Amino acid sequence: MATFVDRYPDEAKVVQASLAVAFIALGIGAFFGLIQALHRTNIIRIISSVDYYTVLTGHGVLLALVFTIFFLVGLFTWAVTRSLERPLPDIRLTWAWFGLMTTGATITAVTILAGLFPDIPMSADVLYTFYAPLQAHPAFYIGLAMFIIGTWMAGADWFLAYREWRSENPDERIPLQTFMVLTTMIMWYISTLGVAVSVVFFLIPWSMGLVDSVNPLLTRTLFWYFGHPVVYFWLMPAYLMWYTVLPKLSGGRLFSDPLARVVFVLFLLLSTPVGIHHQYLDPGIAEGFKFIAMTNTMFLLLPSLLTAFTVVASMEHGARQRGGEGYLGWLGTLPWRDPAFTGMALAGLMFAAGGFSGMINAGMNINYLIHNTIWVPGHFHMTVGTAVALTMMAGTYWLLPQITGKKVYSRPIGLLQVVMWFVGMVFMSNAMHRGGLLGIPRRTAEPQYTNFDFVTAIGSIWEIRVQIALGGTLLFISVVLFLFNVAATWADDRSETPVDDYLPEPLSDASGSPVILDNLALWTGIAVVLVILAYTLPLASIIGDAGIFGSSPVFPASISLDAVVNTITGVIN
Ligand code: HAS
Ligand code: CU1
């Protein structure tokens, strides 16, 4: 069978372009990460602490939004085309969404970077969570809106391809990779509505001076309505590779196609009605709504626990095909010299730890201990920063040959690079989690308070800082090696031998799974109902308390000293 690039040359170009933008963002974002890690730990300071927030915003937006999502659209374009075995309906539409996303991302990036140049009257140091009361230049939000509309068009492109395929194959099961793409996109449509409303109706008019004020709690809640599902939008491309590529790399087959479908349906249903778990500490949202979000979050652990089971079972099956034996002895027969395999396996391993720190975040009472501390960046560098980013880098060693017809320039550099990422992240995220338990705050250039020392039970603050700086440096070197390897592969000539792109059928295939799993309309309907149940009352009460534009007389709150004194004396007497 011919290589992907020969069968679908037009689609291969779009995938290549998407990955190229993703990797440019990765390079700049990683450099900002290095500056921050060294600055925060007070080891090397090359920027002022005021500029730290611009650099932090650039780091978050370029890595968590631009790198991940451009990689996603490239991967999904590849997955839909190859699994439906047909080109996309109209390549002009495909280039149109790519163009819109790239223009939007560029405008947003320029607005952020302008903050480093005092002569340019533009800035956007609002962090990647961009809710009020922090305010950015309107161009920041406009770029983001264009970027998101671009992703909607990409989804439409894949749905149109599916519709064409369906009209010719009325009775067939949706191919697994396309099923994963479509369920992920429905989840994305539902959840991006929140951020679209926030950006279009509140943040853009407010930043342009068309309205005087906004209700910060409302923009926060709309942000987190989108802000939790977005983490699964990052994760699903990694899962797509763990389910469909990793078993093959291990030498075996996916354990169960039906279980994989159940997992993606569960993510569609449960990803959105949980966003309030980022707001346990927000006054203004009643405890009961927080409790509902917590319960839903605990149910949402299920699809990832099922994934751990299915993916590890597939790896074990592969290892046993290669002659592996014993309870754990089979681990040794896995292809550890293959950077694509090792990167994904290490990413999965770290996700097991990141998932546990997520469970701790999700508990309402324990969250009070870690919220707004550096524990949270520890958590998300294991999840998006490793489960997702490392899988994407490792996946590139598999994907790039498919879309270019070229061999990876150096597998040893690839292997070194993925292992270095894992080791760097062990240092950094472990130290961040420990620092968070001591109360070291996140999102600040100056975590050390004057005349106050954090007390450690084991180790020291100095040692925690050195681990963070060392980890951050290893991560940066790993990205440099990755980008070098990718650029060298791209620049190489095509190899004579065709690229192996065969993905084997699962052990238990789609014929064994209930047909209802493919009923996308049903799952969309239930997902919408769950969102309505989880969000109508909290939103109504937030708007009731402070108005749509935050014009309630209750804010800003002021406390009279007399009232406090009277209350205290009342209690004492
Ligand atoms: Fe989270 C905060 C709860 C998953 C990302 N999370 C964040 C933030 C980010 C983020 C970016 O409830 C910070 C936002 C900000 O800036 O304020 N998170 C969870 C829970 C999960 C979870 C319950 N998070 C993720 C994923 C992310 C991500 C995935 C990105 C991709 N998170 C929270 C909460 C907060 C939060 C609170 C708010 C904290 C606060 O107070 O601010 C769960 O989905 C996790 C489930 C995962 C598992 C692990 C399963 C293990 C698997 C590995 C299999 C192994 C393999 C390899 C394949 C149960 C699947 C085997 C290898 C061999 C060698 C055998
Ligand atoms: Cu979340």
Automatic annotation (TrEMBL):
Record-linked InterPro entries: Ba3-like_Oxidase_I, Cyt_c_oxase-like_su1_dom, Cyt_c_oxase-like_su1_sf, Cyt_C_Oxase_1, Cyt_c_Oxase_su1_BS
Gene3D superfamilies: Cytochrome c oxidase-like, subunit I domain
Species for this entry: Halogeometricum borinquense
SUPFAM superfamilies found in the cross-reference section: Cytochrome c oxidase subunit I-like
Transcription found in the keyword field: no
Protein location: Membrane
Protein's UniProt name: B(O/a)3-type cytochrome-c oxidase subunit 1
UniProt family annotation: Belongs to the heme-copper respiratory oxidase family.
Membrane topology, from the record: Multi-pass membrane protein
Alphabetized UniProt keyword annotations: Electron transport, Heme, Iron, Membrane, Metal-binding, Respiratory chain, Transmembrane, Transmembrane helix, Transport
GO molecular function, a single term: cytochrome-c oxidase activity
